[in-house]
Amino acid sequence: MIDLINQVNDVVWGYVLIAALVGCGLWFTLRLRFVQFRMVGEMLRLLGDSSVRPTGSEKHISSFQAFTVSLASRVGTGNLAGVATAIAVGGPGAVFWMWVMALFGSATAFVESTLGQLFKRHHADSFIGGPAYYIEQGLKRRWMAVLFAVLITVTFGLANNSVQSNTICHAMEGAFGWDHTLVGVALMVMALVIVFGGIQRIARVSSVLVPLMAVGYFVLAVVVVVMNIEKVPHVLRVIVESAFGLNQAVGGMVGAAIMNGVKRGLFSNEAGEGSAPNAAATAGVSHPVKQGLIQSLGVFTDTLLVCSCTAFIILISGIYEHSDLNGIVLTQAALESEVGTWGRTFVAVAIFLFAFSSIIGNYYYGEANVRFMTKDPRAVTLFRIFSGGVMVMFGAYVSLDTVWSIIDLCMALLTACNLVAIVLLGKYVFRLFDDYQRQRRSGIKEPTFHRSQLPELADRLECWE
To answer: What is the C-alpha to C-alpha distance for residues 245 and 238, in angstroms, rounded to an integer?
Structure first.
């Protein structure tokens, strides 16, 4: 079965999805006049946006909290284990293609997250939304919306959580010799306690864990780079040469570098996958573009910052050239070679924070789409048990190759569905972005949006009275 899944992955990723991702990234970048580069200052300003203040019984989460919920899902196994796997299988050139996908994919992330905000709905004590909602309301294709909801629930709420659990178990075994069953049970209990608290508890935990783990890991990586500053030019040269096959020894690995760079880059930053819009929709903001800009920044933070940290640690160590190590074990060995035996322990702790925050972030994506498919509260309870319990334990037992093969196929199907939707709905984002820029140029510090500004959609935009 796994061999068949791998064959399907090779076809889908090798001939279809890479072209679609690159094409969408380039189209949105050009059509929005390089929004991801021009608006970085605005993105940073909006992290502290307070233009919408909840009143009464409302408990809508802030822009920053929505940013950290999505970043909690982005910054996880992909940043430590995924990068290592990409380098082990595709060579150093995979890092270059991860960077490329982040630079152009951030425009795609802007579009999908803006749509998530535009078509969000009122929920019990927060907003709720995502691709399933904008497909149904924007395209009027209920069947396609349900298909996406099923795919993202399986991909994030179930399959992705098994990857996170698997990586934590391997890291703890490598650092402390802990048994997978013991680690799996502990993870399951912790995850269930948090996910049964809903989006408010998830947002509070994410807003603490995500900045803590990202800053700590970044500081350590900078220390390693400074300690080996003389190797940096060589590392950059190896990345570029491997990416284009300029080095004869790796000339045959260009295709592997591109495929693995794009796959692991997508797994990490999720640009175009349709996951981040679920978190983006929960924020209370005055204009949909605001959350689109913030989520675009999340792609940069994830890939250009955290993934690059792992890549430089591994490439500086040189261990990838002389061993069969893969995944989180390769990252642990690389850091240990640079800072000593405590490096292995540090990676174990870091991956626990990274991957555990991803488990709770992934869970919310699934919950939002379960709620889209049914109003029965028993379905949400059952999903919580499977996402935070069953799949966490499943990941503790299966092999590394098995969990990565399953998640690659799920990601491919999910991304294809979302890309079709955002290409068809992109025209609304272009108009929203033009409106936002007009208001900013006229001196309005906090642009606002009302559904009357898109009259053809007015009856479908529930939250923009």
So the answer is: 10
Tell me 140's DSSP state: -
pLDDT band at 77 (very low <50, low <70, confident <90, very high): low
Nearest residue to 231 (alpha-carbon basis) of 332, 92, 97: 92
SS3 121: strand
User: Which of 357, 211, 200, 201 minimizes the C-alpha distance to 282?
Assistant: 200
Distance between CA atoms of 116 and 415, rounded to whole angstroms? 15
Two tokens at 24?
């969408």
Q: Which residues of 171-186 are buried (b: 16+ CB within 10 A; e: fewer)?
A: bbbbbeebebeebbeb
User: How confident is residue 330, by pLDDT bands cut at 50, 70 and 90?
Assistant: confident
Among 211, 261, 229, 224, smallest CA distance to 98 is for 261
Contacts of 86 (CB under 8 A, 6+ apart): 94, 95, 98, 260, 261, 263, 264, 265
Angle at 196 between CA 133 and CA 279, to 5 degrees: 30
- Give the C-alpha separation, 372 to 145, whole Å: 9
- First-to-last C-alpha distance (Å) of the chain: 51
CA atoms of 262 and 411, how far apart (whole Å) = 12
How many contiguous H segments (helices) and E segments (strands) does the chain have? Answer: 23, 2
What type of residue is 332?
Q
Query: What is each CA distance from 225 to 215, 235, 305, 425, in whole angstroms?
Result: 15, 11, 13, 43
Which residue, among 59, 191, 171, 177, has the nearest Cα to 126 in the 3D structure? 59
State mean pLDDT over 339-346. Answer: 78
Q: Which of 280, 288, 293 is nearest to 432 (CA)?
A: 288
Closest CA to 278 of 129, 384, 462, 59: 129
Rounded to two decimals, the pTM is 0.82
Residue 122, SS3 per DSSP: strand
Partnered with residue 61 across adjacent β-strands are: 283
SS3 (DSSP) at 245: coil
Mean pLDDT, residues 74-90 taken together: 73
Nearest to 238 by CA among 312, 310, 303, 324: 312
- The answer to whether the CB of 156 falls within 8 A of the CB of 73 is yes
CB 377, CB 161: distance < 8 Å? no
The closest alpha carbon to 80, from 391, 335, 401, 399, belongs to 335
Which tokens belong to 62? 């802030």
Query: Using the 8-state DSSP alphabet, how is residue 62 labeled?
Result: P
- Tens digit of each residue's pLDDT (9 = 90 or more) over 184-205: 898 888 888 777 765 566 666 6
Q: Is there a contact between 108 and 418 (Cβ–Cβ < 8 Å)?
A: no
Q: Over the stretch 424-449, which tens digit does the pLDDT of each residue have?
A: 999 999 999 999 999 999 999 889 99
